[in-house]
Amino acid sequence: MKILLLANFSKTSISGYVYQTLVNIGHDVVFVSPQAENNMIACESRVDVPKLIQRLNFNPDLLLMVESSVHPLLLPIGLENVTCITTWWAIDNHINYRWHKEFAVFFDFVYFAQKDFVKPAIRYSNKNIQWLPLACEPTIQTQLNLTRDIACGFVGNMNKYRQKYFDMLTSNTPIEMVSGLNPTEMSSFYNHCQMVFNLSMRGDLNMRTFEAMSCGCLLITQDIQNGLRDLFVPDEHIVVHHLNDAASIIDLYKKMPEKVMEIAQNGYELVRNKHTYMHRVNQILADVKGGKADRFDSDIYITRKYFMMNHRQFKVQKTDEIDAAFNNQNLLKKVKYKFRYLKEYIWQKKYLSKIKKFG
Description:
Elements (H helix, E strand, L loop, with lengths): L1 E6 L6 H11 L3 E6 L7 E2 L3 E3 H8 L5 E5 L8 E3 L7 E6 L2 H11 L5 E4 L5 H8 L3 E3 L18 E6 L4 H10 L6 E3 L4 H8 L2 E6 L8 H8 L3 E5 L5 H4 L7 E3 L4 H9 L2 H18 L2 H12 L9 H12 L10 H8 L3 H23 L6
Parallel strand pairs: 1-2, 1-5, 2-3, 4-6, 5-7, 7-8, 8-9, 10-11, 10-12, 12-13, 13-14
Helix pairs in contact: 3-4, 3-12, 12-13
């Protein structure tokens, strides 16, 4: 299959894992990114996709976009005029739902990594959006048979919210904390850990969940929604904490090394058997096989462009043409669209207000 992959790229981004997986199973992949490296093709952050396809002289069977929060954010335009099937894997729904729900209509197949946002987005955009959680890459995140001389570790960047929490948590419960590691370095660190502590940003089911388990660590993770308990059984594959009891849980499992090994092994086997990027890519390819382009009326695209481009992440790229096209629509339609947008904004605010946020 000829596949055009669009994504912001970094060495720690999901797009690189997806690209390598597609290549490994024999697909002809052209990877286009504003942060292009090696055999990728560079593009501007705002890219006209039909013109890009023409310039590349590459007629894809599938266009796949994978979200990565690397700036400047990639903004493909003209997707409604692309003739091949288009697919989007949206990762940071917990941060970007306000524009994710708008952007969804431009793709034939849409996947959200955070389960709680799937139903609201379907209701809003009238698209068949599916849940596709993150995963591990077993060729990188693997057991290296190193000495596990760190009782509990954490890999992640710090901000003032996380720092305040960790200052409190580690005052009596030591946790080895590091940041700025590339995937290989992170795998090596995890292989020195018996347990890995996980903290979500806004209740998200994050990469750390799968990567730590794939390195054979016991994952002690924040008890969140977004499908955590659909994938893993607490005390069988993972151990959960509720922020205020994290220290006591870590201390308890330090005294039970055999239980740590048992749960860690269960989690290791599960993620490698069901939750790798190969599993995720194969699901996408199976879904699009025999599928067809699903296009909307032009006024839907005009409306979604307007609301998306008014989001702070894209406002600098907005044009007068987008405003004019929206303003030229029927007044009743405009009022209806804005009411629905406000309703979803309120829903998101209420959802996030129930979650302890760390950034």
